[in-house]
Task: structure prediction
Amino acid sequence: MKNGNDNKNMKQDLIALLITVIITVVLLYLVPSKREIVITISWKFFIEMISILPAIMILMGLFSVFIPNDLIVKHLGKTAGIKAIFLGILMGTLPTGPLYVAFPIASSLLKKGASISCIIAFLSAWACIKIPQEMVELQFLGFKFMIARLILTVIFVIIMSVIIEKLLNKKSGEFATNS
Amino acid sequence: MNITALTINGITIISIAIAFKKDKKKTEKALKVALKVSLKMLPMVIITILIIGLILGFIPKSTIINIVGERAGLKGIIAVASLGAVLHIPSIISFPLTASLLRAGASITSVAVFITTLTMIGIVTLPIEIRELGKKLAILRNGLSFIIAIVIGVLMGIIL
Result:
């Protein structure tokens, strides 16, 4: 099932690649004056990407093998309060993979009694401040951009976590039947 | 190679060395995972590189500034935020893409908003989120993420 999905995604990506290549070739053929600039820019970005992507991929591979998901569940299941929010953010920065992988983990955390604020903090950190991801951001958008977004994100994720917990706990009865 | 790239590669080499010392088998598995993911991502990487070249080569700077630049206003920001919420592209790809737009005249605010909604909000994956976490939690999380993405972006525009 999962393999079938992978193959389907790969097929879609390859078709998209083919279409993009055709569009590029046609455009450059029709507008020769743009050839040089397009090729120069694409080449420059290719070099920038190739100089870090293999390293990032290896780091992500190491993270995924050495930090198994049940380790995260074990650490996040029993904490509470503001400490839980910080731990949630910290744990969220470690794993790799797209956000939807985190939903089942968050669900089992909920069942184990983790606070809602901790789970929101965990999901948000997983989504947008994972460590390998921050490294790519550093390379392409620079230190100032990366650090400013990181700090602001942590601040607002904490605020959001507290707000969502307050809102849901008010009607916690309904929520419990929901999950 | 710039200093950032050198540092990242250095960290990776040290990490491999430490991991190898700790557990040879696991490290080999990690490298295999890395190779597999890299191959899977390769088409997307090439697509992104070509699209960046086409955007910067063909679309005039003034057009980019009008759509996602300082002059775009709140409407532009909300449009960029919505685009990020709907699109489903790997975040690693989004950084070079947004960097190219930034160099072409996009504002810091729109770039930060786009990255935040792209990573935090998933309209495509919302059904999975609702199934796993319940309707209320999923909708609150995505809705509030949309708002904080805009706040973070606007603040970044002011700071930087």
